[in-house]
Amino acid sequence: MKIKTYDQSGLGKYSNKWLALDPSSMKVVVSGNKVADVLNRAKKEGIERPVLTRAPKNYGAYIL
After folding, report:
1. 49 assigned to some structural domain
2. Buried b (16+ CB within 10 A) or exposed e, 10-48
3. What pTM was computed for the model?
4. Is residue 4 assigned to a domain?
């Protein structure tokens, strides 16, 4: 099984938002506050089955 990694360092600007990612490139297609709106807008962009995720409110590291 091949593991793919993706740079998520640029997701901080989407803090506390729903994201629709293009499954082939894992790039953000659309973002918004409601998952249904994000899904509909992604489909209008031609992405039939986007990867949906929510960016954390506080995007950062935790030191314990």
Report:
1. yes
2. ebeebeebbbbbeeeeeebbbbbeeeeebbebbeeeebe
3. 0.78
4. no
